[in-house]
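Weekly modeling sync, notes
Attendees: AB, CL, MP (scribe)

Item 1: holo prediction request
CL wants a bound-state model with zinc ion before deciding which constructs to order. AB pointed out that an apo prediction alone won't tell us much about the pocket. Agreed to run with the ligand included and paste results into these notes for async review.

Input as submitted:
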Amino acid sequence: MDAGQRLRGLSEGVHCLGGRKGGRVRAFLLEAGGELTLVDTLFQDDGAGVLEAIRKLGRSPGDLRRIVLTHAHRSHLGGLAALKRETGATVLAHEWESDIVEGERAAQSVGLKPTRPFRTYPFQVGIFLGRPKHKPCPIDESVSDGDAVGPLEVLHLPGHSPGHLGFHWADRGLVIAGDAIATWPRFEAGCSAFNLNVEQHRKSIRRLASLNARIVGVGHGEPLTQVAADRVHSLVV
Ligand SMILES: [Zn+2]
Ligand SMILES: [Zn+2]
């Protein structure tokens, strides 16, 4: 794991991974019933940071049972192909995102108009150009709202992208919001330049708020661990 990568325990069986790369992109490694579930795969192509985190937890790569994706933006797909190869994990995503992950369709363009906060602009240009490309990986199973994935309940939270997913682990008071909420470069209801459908996105934020989570993991930046429910409610419009 590079010096910027960190493995941070948030609650029993809930670990947050990620450093500075990919716009402080985060992944979540969850332990339940002796199995590991990974949400998203960080930015780097080799998956090495995730494999090191698995070993740090005293587990082996073969313990990773499944990888589930919030959506098909490049920053979240970096380690996917390597991790699938190294672990044999089942890969799951929403049907709408699957052919992008599989390399058969470009991610839907977000346009080129610069929008605050400008620190995310390089990623906006990257999506516009489809560069750098992720390594394609087959999706084994489609998942949608209400499905169970390991200890998680799947939440369909469209807006940032049509097949954007979040995840709820009720016993842990945990919600993983993906890019529906960002805390880097600033706390907001996702970077507005990247939200494809504003109305759907507002609905998704209302849904997240209704869960009153104690811990909220986000796609970019540190998780919310203090008065998290209040902070998510503050994003409802
Ligand atoms: Zn995204
Ligand atoms: Zn993202």
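Recorded for review: Residues 7-105+114-233 form a domain with the Metallo-beta-lactamase; Chain A fold (CATH 3.60.15.10).
Action items: CL to compare against the apo run; MP to circulate these notes.
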